Amino acid sequence: MLTYLTRRFLPPIEADEWRPLLLAFAWFFCVLLSYYLIRPVRETLGSVLGRNELLPLFTATFTVMVLANPIYSFLIAKLPRRVLALIVYAFFALCLFVFWLFMNTTISTWTARAFFVWVSVFNLFAVSLFWSFLADTFSSEQAKRLFGFVAAGGTLGGLTGSFLAQELVGRVGMAQLLLVPIGAIGVVAILMLCFDRAARQMKAKTEVAVSDEDQPTGGTFWEGITHVMQSPYLIGICGALILAKLCGTTGYFQQTEIVSETLADNEMRIRLFARMNIAVQVVTIILQTLFVGRLMRWWGLSAVLCILPLTYAASFLGLGMTSTLAMLVIGRVAQRGMAYGLMVPAQETLFTVVSREDKYKSKGFIDTAIARGGDVLASLINDWLFRLGLALPAVAFGMIPATLVWCGISWWLGRQQALRAKYFEAKG
What we know:
The protein is an all-alpha fold. The longest helix is centred in the middle third of the chain and has 33 residues. The radius of gyration is 21 Å and the shape is globular. It starts with a helix and ends with a helix.
């Protein structure tokens, strides 16, 4: 019976893949458990600050990313990957403890702003570092089979964090929620070390060289940027990401506007955001466990990458026709469910066919500076449209052409990934 269920619901898994796979599953579980415990707090503070604060907040986040990237790249160049990860996780745990101290008193406007920016930085760096590890460990063929299962670990962590946030906020208050992710980050560090050892053992059994994984990548910060500028493939990833951020940030602006006009109580907002997160995680885990691996093998990477932009197109069409809280919730759940359930495993597979240096430096630059630059660009566009007096339905309809361009780039990236995978296999 167990064998039947394993074959029915899990992707094909080789015997030597089980240990690193389960450790990666648990690692990502704890990363997103931490994030989804604090995400409703960030969303609540963002709605309290109001729509007019979003552009400065996204700009501040982008600025922090630009300043942090040289430091991150320097550490990548000088330190083994496991030491780099320990430093990153220790820094974030310390920051979270400082925010807990501040939020035990009156939450000032500046504390709310700083926390909003910090959560975005934490999410991008923690998740980017995790997927860099996996892209550096698994091959393109393994990624298409296994990344959906690994992503499901993060989904379960997000679902658990959302439930905890919903249940604990009324009992312990908003500030005390921050104590749980501090402990979870400590567990993350332990799991990372265990995964690193298991990954090296797996590669040793398959006679794949692992000596370079203990060594820093070397080079300089600028190489991550110059490699992006010189590679049409990486430029394509940047273009798709910027369009994704344009669509996602527009949806976030719409969410802030509709929720702030509909719900006046902070606790009601936290509960709404927590319940939306729960719905997103349910959709996501169904997609990750039952569909994404099969779809990438049956339909190909290009088709899977196109699903999210088409989902945004349908969501914007619905919101343009009726700008209600119910339509917003349906659209946002669908967008985020498809993003985490299908797009994340598919998008991370794109990085399995680049050099090791690009898996850390270029990927780190794309996932942080480019991603937040996309947020700033989207914020500027949305602020400009708001100043022009365009109503929410008009903005929603206007975003549909951007989703179609995004779809075209995604299709091209999937084809390029397949060609690169064949080249790497032939090269050995």
